[in-house]
Amino acid sequence: AAVARMLWGYMRWRLRGLEPAARYTAQRALAADARPVVLSGTDLMTSGLAVDLPAVGSSRVSAAAVYVVKP
Length: 71
Hints:
Elements: E1 2-7, E2 10-15, E3 23-28, E4 37-40, H1 41-46, E5 49-52, H2 61-64, E6 67-70
Antiparallel strand pairs: 1-2, 2-5, 3-4, 3-6
């Protein structure tokens, strides 16, 4: 489960139930130009994962909301 908080053009999702010491790779799932980011479980649960929010009405809106986070 994620807790989302809206901040100036992006949203920050704080994930729950992760292993604090584990490293996780996060990447936008539907974007060809997406680069993976590696974060610790602690970072994802405290600071969260910053997600870019494109302008409303943009064709990128749905792609921005789909991320894959895996160990």
